Amino acid sequence: QVQLVESGGGLVQAGGSLRLSCAASGTIFSIMGWYRQAPGKQRELVATITSEGRTNYAESVKGRFTISRDNAKNTVYLHVNSLKPEDTAVYYCHARTISLNFYWGQGTQVTVSS
């Protein structure tokens, strides 16, 4: 059974930092990443990383967020720095297998106070 379990969200002041983690199990993923959904808005891409370590970021988070991956632990991380109130959202872990099966985590809330 495939599972993605996120952790690390919370309440933080503007300018602060958090580290989000997503522990995956059940299969091997070619691409892992993070999306987020703010209230009243569509879910949007934050960052992705391939099993080879190639990364991709949304323009709004470049230079502030860093995605990394530990293939041995099947875990992906998102280091979020210089947080802004507009980063407030539920952050979802996403993973895709080489056979194009997609999976989502349950989400972790990040709230940034001004």
- Count of distinct strands: 11
Q: What's the main sheet like? A: 7 strands, mixed
- Class per helix and strand makeup: mainly beta
Q: Rg, please?
A: 13 Å
The overall pLDDT average reads 96
Chain-wise SSE layout:
Elements (H helix, E strand, L loop, with lengths): L2 E5 L2 E4 L4 E8 L5 E7 L6 E7 L4 E3 L7 E6 L4 E6 L8 E8 L5 E3 L3 E6 L1
Parallel strand pairs: 2-11
Antiparallel strand pairs: 1-3, 3-8, 4-5, 4-9, 5-6, 7-8, 9-10, 9-11
Structure summary:
Helices cover 0% and strands 55% of the residues. It is an all-beta fold and 114 residues long.
Can you offer a commentary on this structure?
The structure is a single chain. By secondary structure, the chain is mainly β. The protein has strands at 3-7, 10-13, 18-25, 31-37, 44-50, 55-57, 65-70, 75-80, 89-96, 102-104, 108-113. The strands form two sheets. Strands 2, 4, 5, 6, 9, 10 and 11 form a seven-stranded mixed sheet that branches. A four-stranded antiparallel sheet has the order 1-3-8-7, with no helix packed on it. A hairpin with a 5-residue loop joins strand 9 and strand 10. The mean pLDDT is 96.
Q: What are the defining features of this structure?
A:
114 residues; mainly beta; 4-stranded antiparallel β-sheet; 0% helix; globular
